[in-house]
Amino acid sequence: MFTELLADRVCLITGSSRGIGLGIAKSLAANGATVVLHGRDKESLQESLASLPEPSRHNFIVADLMTTEGARTLADGFLDLHERLDVLVHSAGVLGPPRTPLADYPEMAWHEVLQVNLTGPFLVTQALLPALREADRPSVIFISSGVGHRGRAGWGGYAVSKFGVEGITQVWADELRQESIRVNAVNPGGTRTEMRAAAYPQEDPLTLPTPEEIAPVFVWLARSDTQITGESLEAQEWIGRDPADER
Ligand SMILES: NC(=O)c1ccc[n+]([C@@H]2O[C@H](COP(=O)([O-])OP(=O)(O)OC[C@H]3O[C@@H](n4cnc5c(N)ncnc54)[C@H](OP(=O)(O)O)[C@@H]3O)[C@@H](O)[C@H]2O)c1
Predict the structure, then answer these.
(1) Are β-strands 139-143 and 34-39 bridged in parallel, bridged antiparallel, or unpaired?
(2) pLDDT tens-place string over residues 12-46
(3) Which residue has the CA at smallest separation from atom 42 of ligand 1?
(4) How far is CA 36 from CA 17, 46, 164, 203, in A?
(5) All domains in the chain, ordered by first residue
(6) In the annotation, is 158 catalytic?
(7) How far, in Å, from the CA of 143 to the mean position of ligand 1?
(8) What is the per-residue pLDDT across 162-183, written as a single tens digit (0 to 9) for each?
(9) Is 117 in contact with 165 (CB distance < 8 Å)?
């Protein structure tokens, strides 16, 4: 279904070469938004761009969030395309070594997971604040996880990074409230992607919702007239709901 609900909204979705990020990007674009995709691989981003409605309206940026320079490349690449950022969705993420107790957790994996899942989004948000300040009631959306609310054995740096995501959401939300920049976190819940398959290799992916099915909450948060900030939402409570009808 195509709408103009998000007409004139400019959106950057990190980690949107595939998975949840791409599902969100497709849903935002289907509601009239202009989107900028992001990932590390140019070819898969070209394919992802071609899968969006009206591909010529959108763009992509190649940048590796493993480094500070990569975060800067992403922010600068966005600012070369647009002066204003209405919606920033942080979907890039890595799982790290699946089911590994902290006692055996490799230090390099710890650094990688914390860098991509937490430090990268922090740096990208910071660098894009001037563009968010140019926007009409902008919305920043971090992607959390169930293990970001309650730690679980074997989820190591990933769980810790998602607790960090919940924390940074609350701090940014409090600091930016006066400027009407809204900042929220969303837990997608188990969703049919490569990351989920790596974490649960025995699971039948067809039992899980697709990235586009969990996207309504992201479309709702992207609207300029949505009010909430500093909250942590569950995407699967929104499956089947029409973001145009919600207040
Ligand atoms: N799927 C689930 O069930 C589930 C549940 C809870 C939370 N989440 C969260 O949802 C978000 C999306 O997960 P997903 O399931 O869609 O994962 P996914 O299918 O593995 O996709 C991950 C995305 O992140 C990008 N990425 C990974 N490392 C990167 C790096 N170093 N620099 C830049 N981009 C990088 C990937 O791009 P490349 O093309 O460069 O690899 C890809 O676009 C993550 O934050 C994840 O923690 C997922």
Answers:
(1) unpaired
(2) 999 999 999 999 999 999 999 999 999 999 999 99
(3) 15
(4) 11, 12, 25, 32
(5) 10-238 (3.40.50.720)
(6) yes
(7) 10
(8) 999 999 999 999 999 999 999 9
(9) yes
